[in-house]
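TEACHING EXERCISE
Course module: macromolecular assemblies
Task: Read the component lines below, then compare them to the predicted structure of the full complex.
Student: A.B.
Group: 4
Components provided:
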Amino acid sequence: MVIADIRIELKHGVTDPEGQNTLKALELLGFEGVRAVRTVKVFEIDLDAEGDGALQMCENMCRKLLANPVIQNYQIELK
Amino acid sequence: MKKVCILRIEGTNCEDETFAAFHKVGAEPERVHLKQLTGHAPLDLRRDLMDYDILALPGGFSAGDYIRAGAIFAARMKASLGTQLRDFVTQGRPVIGICNGFQILVELGLRPAFDEVMAPQPQVALYTNDSDRFECRPTLLRMDNRGSCVWTSGLGMGDVVMFPSAHAEGHLKFPAGEEDRFLERLDENDQIVFRYVDEDGQLAGYPWNPNGSPGNVAGICNPEGNVLGLMPHPERAMTRFNYPEWTRGRDGDDGDGLRLFRAVVGRN
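Instructor-supplied answer key:
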């Protein structure tokens, strides 16, 4: 069994209202020097598969469901 | 009588208003769970999508809107019903996606569908409102379609209607750097159906445009005009009483939504 870490990030240039709002809140709480906040989603998936097979499966999951290529990039890491 | 399939899964919550809207204009609507179309239901509950004349994807929070709004409903539909759905659309049968239904159409790759009926992957996205909030209030829309869309044949170009908006993810996103090209192409193909406007019918920013969509686009159809997706809710504007000014001189008993539903139910 492997654990796949699938990280879904917004593409460069896509505004991140949740990140911007969090940045504002952090500033209001008095944190200084916070330059940017980005929101990222991580799916941790336990898989009964190994190596290339597991990677292929995760790629498929991203294409079919987990990422919208218009606004999101994905990274897969097998552990 | 036109048979309407009002398709739902867990978390859909506007099926009753959508049912009432179609019922009011004389159609024969039925609330159908996706599992009833895919054979995962007792025999007497199974249905065939192709037995219906119209398909409606109502609003709500299908599958909790997890992953992205509409993504799970779309992935499930595509996996189990993809071919039939493509046939349904290709045959020119009317399809409407309202709010969450629009998000599902986008995730299905059925919008904007420039070169193919259903793209393998989404070509645009409906993304978090610029305000990062759920925007829920009456919105004014100008009908900008030049005649391709069957759903708006009962409206005149430039008519302004009020359909309420209620969404957190309605900002129409095009691939980075291609925003202008996409907008131009939508316009060339006569795919832009509704735009958010102010009281004078002019394009205006927030709060008139609740989500920040480029070109104030609120609803688009496919080039053939039978599939309409829009964020605001026409099924919530069926009577005078759905309007905030109903005690202050609004004439007649009809809401603007009636003209939309009548247009497809009345056509042969």
